[in-house]
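Response to reviewer comment R2.3. The reviewers asked that we include at least one raw input/output pair. We reproduce the pair for OmpA-like domain-containing protein here without editing.
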Amino acid sequence: MSELHDNSTEAPVWAIFGDLMAALVGVFVLILVWVIGYQLELARDLAAETEQRQVEQQRREQLERALAEPLASGRISLRDGRIGISGNVLFALNSAQLQAEGRELLGSLIGPLQDYLAERDELLMVSGFTDDLPIREDNLHFDDNWELSAQRALTVTRALIDAGMPASLVFAAAFGEQQPVAPNSDEDNRARNRRVEMAPVPRQGGDG
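Raw output as returned:
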């Protein structure tokens, strides 16, 4: 009777142990499935990021080829897909009146830019920038750098349209003294910040 009693008490212990092991295996399987899923998601994200970088690289190379001549002459710069033109080439100090050299340069860009925009179905954003020096008190045309940068962007936009760029492909933006490319610590750097940039941008989706 004693031996029979001992066997009957051992059975529930093993049953509980089996249930515990089954639960642990289940948890392990869930963790394993989560880890595999997370790794797959990371792999997809990495592949998408790599593809995006390749697209941007191809985009920059295509733009460089389209603008090879003015880039080689040093009349424009290309950085991160933005075409930069020194404000000194386009305008006199504190002026939004386009100089002859600047008008000629803009005219030479129409062909390659228009072909590039048409091929990619994009628009051209023309952005005006200034240095950090305030507008001189004797300047009766502009209240501040925002207004000066806006007028310069509009002047370049109109010059592009006058030279043959469809008005539907170009628009203007103003940044004033914001987003400098160099510290406004000396005249050379300020001259770099006085600039106009042109950047191809995607069309906004949707109607209206």
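The domain at 75-202 is CATH 3.30.1330.60 (60s Ribosomal Protein L30; Chain: A;). The mean pLDDT is 83. Further pairs are available on request from the corresponding author.
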